[in-house]
Design a protein that fits this description.
mainly alpha
Amino acid sequence: MGLYSALLILAILLIRFGITKAINKTWDSSVDFKELINYIILSITVIVVAIPEGLPLSVTLSLAVSVKKMLIDSNLVRRMEAC
């Protein structure tokens, strides 16, 4: 979810940037390049902030799946961390 929202934010900011530059018909290389870099950094920030939210859930689910697979193989699992 975080990756998709970051890509959506990047797309919206780039569309906004393009429309603004098309309307104003101005281009300053250094200022515009910095603005584009800021948009990319904002998207990366959204990804970095959103990923830790789903990490505990994915770890728990993968451990539960591995416990189920070991149960099918008749292995005794006392702790999920052992998987």
